[in-house]
Amino acid sequence: MKIVIAGAGIFGTAIANAIKKEHNIVLYSRSMSIVEDINNNRRNTKYFPNKILSKKISASNDLHTFEDADILFLCVPSYSILSLFSTIKISKNCLVINGAKGYGNEKELIPEALSHIIPNEIISFKGPSFATEMMYELPTSFTVGTQSPENFKTVQNLFRKGLIFLDHSEDILGIELVSIIKNIYAIVIGIVDATYNSANVRFLIFTKAMKEIKMIIEHFGHSSDILFNYAGVGDFGLTSLNDLSRNRTLGLLIGKGFLNAELGNSVILEGVRSVEKLTSILAFAENLKTPLLTNLNELLQSKISNKEFLKLILN
Ligand SMILES: NC(=O)C1=CN([C@@H]2O[C@H](COP(=O)(O)OP(=O)(O)OC[C@H]3O[C@@H](n4cnc5c(N)ncnc54)[C@H](OP(=O)(O)O)[C@@H]3O)[C@@H](O)[C@H]2O)C=CC1
Ligand SMILES: O=C(CO)COP(=O)(O)O
Question: SUPFAM superfamilies of this UniProt entry (predicted)?
Fold first, then answer.
């Protein structure tokens, strides 16, 4: 079985490390220096300077490597997935497993956006899963979103020799959506924590955030039961309450007054882009009040100050 992982960043490398025991894995990277580092030195120095990688993990920057993949993990930022698929071909039997947490295009989730290009079911794979902790082989959980019990079994088999625990949902789009929304509200909690550093205020806003998340999920026709999958409360809690999260850290920086900090084109932009997109998708949704989301969007566009933002979300 050929397993290809698109993206040799922290998540792609951690996934490769988690399934290496039984399988050979090809990590696709657009950067030749990373490919050479992995193949020649058994290291991915840019992302894990202190880790030696297994011989079972090789790297490639050849776009043809996708063509005979049986399993393809998507571990590149969400906004790069469509352009990646415009340059590669995959088999119609290839199992595509999406780990990216963001929209596929302006309005559509990644499985929706990819459905215009490929017929394959896109399996959603989202967890409360800091890649750095996975790399140090700490027990980690994921939700597998698939409508096919067979595909769920295949994913279970991939991870059966490690410390990865899986639950299952048939609601692929719901799991995709919740993985986007949790990043947005993690930014909000970061801002609140940077300002107040108070357990009372944190969980006042955390509770409001949970209510908004539930309303948004239901607005799009999903059952809020998915919040009790690992990808739900688990990933929202992990991302919003732990400083390892880039989205929470962005919120902390904003709260400390660094809103104009240079973000470059990094994966951190994923959460910010999601705020803009979800706000515009919901712009005409009547009877749906999402003050945390809409005021965060105003704040990110510098239309209101931190002080005004906090006043508005506390009310
Ligand atoms: N970090 C985590 O704990 C988790 C992350 N995720 C999700 O996984 C995705 C990747 O995140 P993560 O690994 O953390 O991010 P990183 O920034 O560590 O890695 C991103 C990887 O994607 C590559 N990449 C970036 N832009 C492009 C592009 N335009 N075309 C092709 N390749 C590109 C990078 O290549 P290069 O090195 O050349 O820049 C790098 O290999 C995100 O959607 C994230 O939300 C999911 C679960 C956990
Ligand atoms: O999604 C993540 C872990 O589940 C990582 O979150 P950040 O992108 O905020 O670091």
Answer: 6-phosphogluconate dehydrogenase C-terminal domain-like, NAD(P)-binding Rossmann-fold domains
Among the three residues 113, 146, 170, which one is the final residue of a domain in this structure?
170
- pLDDT of 162 reads 82
Distance 243 CA to ligand 1 centre (A): 18
R_g (Cα) of the chain, nearest Å:
19
Q: Whose CA is nearest to atom 6 of ligand 2?
A: 245
Number of structural domains in the chain: 2
Same domain, 133 and 222: no
- 8 Å CB contact between 167 and 143: yes
Helix, strand, or coil (residue 178): helix
> Would residue 182 show up in a list of annotated catalytic residues for this protein?
yes
* Ligand 1 centroid distance, CA of 87 (Å): 18
Which segments of the chain are extended strands (E)?
3-6, 25-28, 57-60, 71-74, 95-98, 122-126, 140-145, 164-169
Average pLDDT of each block of 10 consecutive residues along the chain (315 residues)?
A: 97 95 93 98 97 97 98 97 98 98 96 97 98 96 98 96 94 98 98 98 98 98 98 98 96 87 62 95 94 96 95 96
CATH number at residue 223: 1.10.1040.10
pLDDT at 270: 86
In the annotated binding site for NAD(+), the residues are 7-12, 131, 246
Tell me the binding residues for substrate: 101, 246-247
Residues 57 and 96 in one domain: yes
